[in-house]
Amino acid sequence: MGQNGWSVTYTTQSICTLKGSTVDLSCSYTYPSDYTVTTTFWFTKYDAVGPVSLSDDPDYKGRVTYRKDKGNGHTLMITDLRESDSATYKFRFTDQTGKWRYTGDPGVTLSVTGLQVKVTGGHQDKTLTCITTCTLTDNPTYIWYKNGHKVKENTSSLYSDYFSDADSYSYAVKGHDN
Question: Residue ranges of the Ig-like domain (predicted)?
Answer without folding.
Answer: 106-178
